Amino acid sequence: xxxxxxxxxxxxxxxxxxxxxxxxxxxxxxxxxxxxxxxxxxxxxxxxxxxxxxxxxxxxxxxxxxxxxxxxxxxxxxxxxxxxxxxxxxxxxxxxxxxxxxxxxxxxxxxxxxxxxxxxxxxxxxxxxxxxxxxxxxxxxxxxxxxxxxxxxxxxxxxxxxxxxxxxxxxxxxxxxxxxxxxxxxxxxxxxxxxxxxxxxxxxxxxxxxxxxxxxxxxxxxxxxxxxxxxxxxxxxxxxxxxxxxxxxxxxxxxxxxxxxxxxxx
Length: 266
Prior knowledge:
- By secondary structure, this protein is an alpha/beta fold.
- Helices cover 37% and strands 27% of the residues.
- It has ten helices and twelve strands.
- It has helices at residues 3-8, 51-58, 81-86, 104-108, 126-139, 156-169, 186-201, 213-219, 242-249, 252-265; strands at 13-22, 25-35, 40-44, 66-71, 74-76, 89-92, 115-118, 121-124, 174-178, 205-210, 222-227, 230-236.
- The strands form three sheets. A six-stranded mixed beta sheet has the order 6-9-10-3-11-12, sandwiched between helices.
- It starts with a helix and ends with a helix.
């Protein structure tokens, strides 16, 4: 695909100046972002920056109050997570929404279980479900030898990878990941980020929510920085380096202003 062809294709998701308030509290105001096929859009910010509100709007949990949300060029006001999923937007929350005591394969097909019919009866087709899970994991290069293993006994990184593989297998066009590396060590975070890149390379648009610029920058193509519900910065990778991204995330400009004021006082 040439650059010209890509420019003619509508973004998978585009927000234009969207805002959201809860009573008198403004959670998000005038935020614009793009999510393109085959790219990772990183949304960065500390707690209270508005990241969760943005996720919930894209996932259909809440509706925006102002601005416009476009899905593949069409204005939308999502009414439910089911509608968002039907449009190809899969959200993997930080708690992963898995059932810890269920097996890996059972979690993989949860909500999309294959069945065998015996007259009016429907029974879970265990063999087909296990084959679906095995293929979905293998397609992403994820090796979990025992699919009967309770998913709660997997490492945090493995659980994230299972959730990513599941979303890819069931046809997601956009994959939204809520702080997927927040509770992981360096090695496990690296594993998860490798599968983020794999999802991107398979043509998905990925929205990576994080507060860690060192995790975002190696995989990201676009960077949206939020602070107190508003846009602090919106950059393509060619427009910002890791040092500047980290400086903005850590409030470097505010610290410099504070130092300037202290120098004047002394």
